[in-house]
TrEMBL record:
GO terms for biological process: gluconeogenesis; glycolytic process. It is found in: Cytoplasm. (2R)-3-phosphoglycerate binds at R37, R117, R164. Pathway: Carbohydrate degradation; glycolysis; pyruvate from D-glyceraldehyde 3-phosphate: step 2/5. The lineage of its organism: Archaea, Methanobacteriati, Methanobacteriota, Methanomada group, Methanococci. Its EC number is 2.7.2.3. One of its GO terms (cellular component) is cytosol. This is Phosphoglycerate kinase. Belongs to the phosphoglycerate kinase family. It holds the Pfam family PGK. It catalyses: (2R)-3-phosphoglycerate + ATP = (2R)-3-phospho-glyceroyl phosphate + ADP. It comes from Methanocaldococcus infernus (strain DSM 11812 / JCM 15783 / ME). Keywords: ATP-binding, Cytoplasm, Glycolysis, Kinase, Nucleotide-binding, Transferase.
Length: 409
């Protein structure tokens, strides 16, 4: 259980809202290439502005050392356009000027502060080993101590960062109620439902290169699902676990990704749940720049970059009968046009299905947008790592803090 915006009256109250609007940027111009995450937080912010709250927005973009580690001034302009309401940008974080501006906010006004990761405390804190981190510890950082007295409530709407425990994500909850924003609330409810209590038949389609994450998800949900469709590197690992010889190059790909240890885990899953886990029956290889399909029983001597037509047909039939579908990761190397076919056809099967459909963020959500399937999917998660961690059953710092706040307030 967690506190939601329904539990409070924000009229004339000072509210700090942590969002995740980390966007892909053009490396040359710095222009925002995809503003989906900005659009997704608008419901929460509109509601606060309409209820005459005094709103201060905190967010980040990338991290130190990366080319897209920039100011949030452009994000603020785009957000203002989507809200149809001016959000003032302040290019500092906790100076006297910032604090005075927060104190002098009028009801219905909104400001956005500079990238929180410009603060050394935000990036240097030991936020990855979060088990030892408490709201108290993060709340005692200089950054949070300077800002916290200025606010009545803390709203966390940064689901994509829910697996982090940095000061701006958990520190304010030491001083005031931590409340789930509308996006956070929706993500937790939808992902909890498909993880813990899906309508059957329930099918998970797991592809991409993050086989370690996919196998964690399988281990957590396999008792509740009817079928798991494997593709991409995940599918290749399960084929090797079944004893198929995929040739030197495909084994090298798995080795270079540091995923050799996952083959043994795949074997154990197949021993216990083999009837639930479907693997490709044919693969699309790259031979002299062309797509060549071969059955997995034939000689595989070139890189497998997609699932084959027969596999697509089998998987599409399974998806057609499902009541719940959760998909994570592309079926192949979709960046190469000739090998985007499997990903495209599985997305098409999802879009045409009568099931409740969920895409777990990351690359697959970008592909769904690219091919025009987004509008036909019931829920596309804004998370990447946070969604994978949530579906794997891991405890996420931000959500743990929301639960603690519910018990406290």
């Amino acid at each position: 259980m967690f506190l939601t915006m329904d539990n409070f009256d924000f009229n004339n109250k000072s509210v700090v809202v942590r969002v995740d609007i980390n966007c892909p940027l053009d490396p040359d111009s710095g222009e925002i290439l995809d503003d989906k995450r900005i659009r997704e937080v608008c419901d929460t912010l509109k509601e606060l502005i309409n209820s005459e709250a005094k709103v201060t927005i905190l967010a980040h973009q990338s991290r130190p050392g990366k080319k897209d580690f920039t100011s949030l001034s452009e994000h603020c302009k785009v957000l203002s356009e989507h809200l149809n309401h001016e959000v003032e940008f302040i290019d500092e974080l906790f100076s006297r000027r910032v604090r005075e501006r927060i104190l002098n906010l009028e009801p219905g006004e909104a400001i956005m502060l500079e990238n929180v990761r410009f603060s050394s405390e935000e990036v240097l804190s030991d936020w990855k080993k979060w088990e030892g981190i408490t709201p108290k510890k993060q709340g005692e950082t200089y950054f949070i101590k300077k800002l916290a007295p200025l606010f009545n409530y803390f709203i966390n709407d940064a689901f994509p960062a829910a697996h982090r425990a940095q000061p701006s994500l958990v520190g304010f909850s030491y001083y005031m109620p931590a409340i789930a924003g509308r996006l956070m609330e929706k993500e937790i409810k939808v992902l909890s439902k498909v993880r813990d209590d899906p309508e059957n038949p329930c099918v998970y389609s797991l592809g991409g290169a993050k086989a370690d994450d996919s196998i964690k998800i399988m281990m957590n949900v396999i008792e509740k699902v009817d079928k798991i469709l494997t593709s991409g590197v995940v599918g290749n690992i399960f084929l090797i676990a079944k004893g198929y010889d995929l040739g030197r190059e495909n084994k090298e790909i798995i080795k270079n990704l540091g995923l050799e240890g996952e083959i043994e885990k795949a074997k154990k899953l197949l021993e216990k749940y083999g009837e639930k886990i479907l693997t490709p029956v044919d693969l699309a290889l790259e031979v002299d720049g062309e797509r060549v399909e071969r059955k997995v029983t034939e000689k595989i001597d070139k890189p497998a970059y997609d699932i084959g037509s027969e596999t697509i047909e089998i998987y599409s039939e399974v998806l057609k009968e499902a009541k719940t579908i959760v998909a994570n990761g592309p079926a192949g190397v979709f960046e190469k046009e000739k090998f985007s076919y499997g990903t495209r056809k599985l997305l098409e099967a999802m879009a045409n299905s009568k099931a409740f459909t969920v895409i777990g963020g990351g690359h697959l959500s970008a592909v769904a947008e690219l091919y025009g399937f987004s509008d036909k999917i019931d829920h596309i998660s804004t998370g990447g790592g946070s969604t994978l961690s949530f579906l794997s059953g891991e405890r996420l710092p931000v959500i743990e803090v929301l639960k603690m706040s519910y018990e406290k307030y």
